[in-house]
Design goal:
By secondary structure, the chain is of the alpha+beta class. It is built from ten helices and 19 strands.
């Protein structure tokens, strides 16, 4: 059975483990990263191990200091929508242009119409650095994760008897990484702490950590007056075990899960399109058969009137009443087709550089929301169409990453 090489970059060194069936069958001596030709040395050792242990691929655990992570709440629930909205939310939080970063995320909590998301970013050039080392050894880089989150998952898997709320602390590259946890698994916040002095100050002065036990994982605990601290060791075997699972938190910059979700989303769109076509055809066929049935009843009533009524005036009144019913029915049928007609008009009028993600219809009013390269160009084509009137923006246009986010409201002309 083939093995996987796990390469950890932390504390200024590269640690290489050979993982087979969730256990470390080999561990290399750490390679200092500041030494000359460190990259070549890592590639060379991986080549040697690949031949000896039949290694098929490689997984990299990067240091937390090379990434930026946090929690954000978004007004969407589908992964595809989160993936589209997240860059707009993060571009104001990151120091460099959003295009310089690779972004991954996992959904922590969903409620009503919003999602709490754990996001993590890393510079694309850092990924390229790791890729050049791994591919230089002839192996395939199949996964790039953050060592801090994998250590946190391994800690949770130990099922240590503790209170529902606690603080998880570890140390790497001379800095502390801290996670505030609620109800044994829900992340409330994630922090980088420069040194012991700042860590002690944060814990003593912040109400966020008060009355919570502190678990120092794979590092020496601080002695803080009035605060319960405990040291916990997570072994390589425990770490490798969680690396083999896809349980939350799944923070992987090379995961194909997003592609699977995107494929599932495409199938869903295709299904919805098929249902739309069926409903569109049904909107014509069902009224047709209803018309046939209604006309059959009308003819029966007319025949009954002809056979029973001798008064021509009375018969004409009955006929007029039946015609009025048919006219009302036709009006009802036409009103039922208005949303479909409006969708057809929007399909024709909205340019290709515009995407709609909300369509609302209420009595005589329509409202659309979406993204466009030029939202102001949408008003005139819609005003020119005879179906709409009073076309206007109902909120200011917000431009992010060269895309205008807009909301337009319009009224039926008839």
């Amino acid at each position: 059975m083939s093995a996987t090489a796990v390469v950890k970059f932390t504390d200024g060194a590269c640690h290489i483990l050979v993982n087979k069936k969730g256990r470390a069958v080999h561990s290399e001596e750490p390679i200092p990263l500041k030494t000359e030709n460190a990259s070549e040395e890592i590639s060379s050792r991986l080549r040697a191990l690949s031949s000896e242990y039949e290694i098929a691929d490689c997984m990299v655990l990067t240091s937390f200091r090379y990434s930026s992570a946090g929690l954000v709440t978004l007004p969407v629930k589908q992964r595809a929508d989160i993936e589209s909205a997240l860059p707009f939310e993060l571009e104001k939080r990151l120091p460099l242009p959003i295009g310089d970063y690779s972004i991954t995320f996992d959904v922590i909590e969903k409620k009503k119409q919003e999602s709490t998301v754990l996001y993590c970013t890393i510079l694309k050039k850092q990924i390229q650095f790791y890729r050049s080392i791994i591919e230089g050894s002839g192996l395939k880089l199949k996964s790039l994760r953050v060592g801090f989150f994998e250590l946190f998952k391994a800690f949770l898997s130990k099922k240590i008897s503790t209170s529902a709320d606690f603080v998880f602390i570890t140390r790497e590259d001379e800095k502390y990484c801290m996670a505030n946890v609620h109800n044994n698994k829900k992340l409330l916040s994630i922090r980088h702490i420069k040194n012991e002095k700042q860590l002690a100050f944060e814990i003593q002065e912040s109400d966020e950590y008060r009355n919570k036990p502190l678990f120092f994982v794979n590092c020496a605990p601080l002695e803080i007056e009035g605060i319960k601290t405990e040291k916990v060791e997570v072994t390589d075997r425990e770490l490798l075990k969680v690396l083999s699972s896809r349980k939350p938190l799944l923070i992987d910059f090379l995961s194909n899960f997003s592609e699977q979700e995107r494929l599932k989303y495409s199938y869903s769109v295709l299904l919805l399109l098929t249902l739309t076509i069926v409903l569109f055809l049904s909107s014509y066929l069902i009224p047709y058969f209803m018309d046939v049935s209604t006309l059959g009843k009308v003819n029966s009533e007319i025949n009954s009137i002809k056979s029973k009524a001798s008064d021509v005036i009375s018969m004409n009144r009955e006929l007029q009443a039946l015609k009025e019913k048919i006219r009302e029915y036709e009006e009802v049928k036409q009103r039922a087709l208005v949303p479909i007609e409006a969708l057809n008009v929007l399909t024709e009028k909205v340019p290709e550089n515009t995407w709609l993600y909300t369509f609302k219809y209420n009595n005589r009013f329509f409202e659309i929301q979406g993204l466009s390269e030029s939202a102001t160009d949408l008003i005139k084509p819609l005003e020119d169409d005879p179906l709409f009137k009073n076309v206007r923006f109902t909120s200011p246009i917000v431009t992010r990453n060269k895309k205008d986010r807009f909301r337009i409201r319009m009224e039926l002309e008839r």
